[in-house]
Amino acid sequence: MKENMSKDSFTPKDSHYAKLRRAHRDQKRKAGELPANPAPAQRRKGGAGTPPPRPADTVWLYGIHTVKAAISNPAREILRLLVTKNALSRLELDVDTLGFPVEIVLPSEIDRLLGPDAIHQGTLLEARPLPVRKLDSLVDSPLLLVLDQVTDPHNVGAILRSAVAFGAGAVITTERHSPTESGVMAKSASGALEMIPYIQITNLAEAIEELHRLGFQTIGLDSEGPEPLENTFEGARVALVLGAEGKGLRQKTRATCKALARLDMPGAIKSLNVSNAAAIALYAARQHLLRQI
Questions:
Q1: Do 162 and 97 reside in the same domain of the chain?
Q2: Does residue 156 share a domain with residue 116?
Q3: In this predicted model, what pLDDT tens digit does every residue of 224-259 receive, in sequence order?
């Protein structure tokens, strides 16, 4: 039961620490590491603080790691960088050699463009989407990850990060019911979006069949799979297929994969967030592939 506490129940020590916390938050907001407090008009849908529309055929990337990775990616066409003085020093860039405009701005200008909830850390990079990649370009990659309508960009970003960490050659997903390249996804990936192809295809079952022709064993992760994942691997090329949380793999996807497998979990909880499941499956697949060398 929650106790009611009056102002008299707080001690001077409580007040002192509250002031310190507020001062720390204010300092981080000033540096652009936290979003500025939205004005009342910004909190109202469609109010005066509504961010302006993003130009067509561009992506807005933000966050120190995300922006540094994008600038380091030769495949990324960059249009301009908006950055605070503090963030520019953290990026450690030689502005004179960048080849695109750099505008020094206040954190409030980036807040205005992105909205008050984006943790931009004083950076906003306007760029073109990355070039489209085809499945046949992945023939030399021994490990791939396929997503069946995983819609949350935070989850997809975390999956991209794990895919890079475990040496996967690409993350493949559908054009519909999957997030497109965005600042939210890139921020969650913490730079990984620039390091691995993110391939969106129109028909997942046809893409899986093409992976079979390229020599991949496709394994669908399913909580009711007949065997544990570690007992299912065969050959030197593996494509792991994961479905959305809740509904899992679609029936057509399940029928198209060469095998279905489960992650054995002895604890009381029998399901995982899809990004956590992806990381565990990638680790298991990497251990199998190392034994094939």
A1: no
A2: no
A3: 899 999 999 999 999 999 998 778 999 999 999 999
pLDDT at 4: 44
Predicted structure pTM score: 0.78
The more confidently predicted of residues 39 and 159 is 159
pLDDT at 38 over 50: no
Residue 216 and residue 269 share a domain: yes
pLDDT(211) > 70: yes
Domain range spanning residue 277? 135-292
Number of domains in the chain: 2
Measure the CA–CA gap between 103 and 85, rounded to whole angstroms.
Answer: 10
